[in-house]
Amino acid sequence: MSSTAVPFAAGPTLLSEVTAAVRTAGLTLRDRHTPHARGVSLEEIVAEIHANDAAVLDVLREPLLRARPGSRWAEDELAGGALPAGEWWVVDPAEGNINHVHGMEDWAVTATLVRDNQPVLTVVHLPLTGDTYTAVAGGGAHLNGRPLKVSAKTDLGAALVGTGQARPGEDERTFRRIGDSVTAMLVNGLVVRVSVPATMQLIHVAAGRTDAFWQFSDVRSGLVAGALLVAEAGGTVTDLAGAPWSTASRDFLATAPGIHTAALDVLSPIA
């Protein structure tokens, strides 16, 4: 996936309709936010997470399906791998849900239209700040209507990079690869950020605030929005073997183009 993605003929109103729906859903999630953590036991935390998801989906699902007749809904937000052919809504009603229920601020509502396993339109809304990131394949990436552009960095040694786990309870091999990759990037990069969720790191790559993000996972809902934003902002999005990324890819790398080869050299032996 790159900034040369095939343009998507979204029609004059689709992006505005999706943006309106996501912003409205964001009000629901904002109203549920508290400045303190909710839940102590694992069961209580999981219940809070599910309640957030259900509340947002109640107001988001139907407007999105109505905005794109014939589109389908990817039900499991933690699923990965290729989707059947056609157009699918891949939505995270509370991207960074774990942060939300712990009273933190790094969370968003995301909705991405995926056509034949490539994201073609996305909206990421941050309800606490009111910021809205949008991208359409072939139409660029924007923050509140202003164009985004990735970093001009060419030296990995000067790069601010990031990673994080995709979901709780991943296998030990994945956790070890994350640890090994952080060590390798601490040696070869400037500073490494490890945090969740992926989208909240990828918006920074798209905006040129950070220079790379990688993940040893294929959770679609955490990657599709950021993948399109980075690509449309001029970045390079591949798997960790350097092949173009799609929802069928098993891992993920999004970078400023000037450090992509160097990042691959560091990460591909670990993948």
Keywords:
single chain, 271 residues, alpha+beta, seven-stranded mixed beta sheet, five-stranded mixed beta sheet, 7 helices, globular
Topology diagram in text:
Layout: H1 14-32, H2 42-67, E1 72-73, E2 87-95, H3 97-101, E3 108-115, E4 118-126, E5 131-136, E6 140-143, E7 146-147, E8 160-163, H4 172-188, E9 191-194, H5 198-206, E10 212-215, H6 220-232, E11 236-238, E12 252-255, H7 260-267
Parallel strand pairs: 1-2, 8-9, 8-10
Antiparallel strand pairs: 2-3, 3-4, 4-5, 5-6, 6-7, 10-12, 11-12
Structural class: alpha+beta
Quote the average pLDDT: 95
One letter per element, helices H and strands E, the order comes to: HHEEHEEEEEEHEHEHEEH
Question: If you compute it from the alpha carbons, what radius of gyration comes out, rounded to the nearest whole angstrom?
Answer: 17 Å
Could you walk me through the main structural features you see in this protein, from its secondary elements to its overall organization?
Helix 1 runs antiparallel to helix 2 and helix 5 packs parallel to helix 6. The radius of gyration is 17 Å and the shape is globular. A seven-stranded mixed β-sheet has the order 1-2-3-4-5-6-7, with helices on both faces. The two termini are 19 Å apart. A hairpin with a 4-residue loop joins strand 4 and strand 5. The longest helix is centred in the first third of the chain and has 26 residues. It has 271 residues and is an alpha+beta fold. The model has no long low-confidence stretch (mean pLDDT 95). The chain is 36% helix and 22% strand. It contains seven helices and twelve strands.
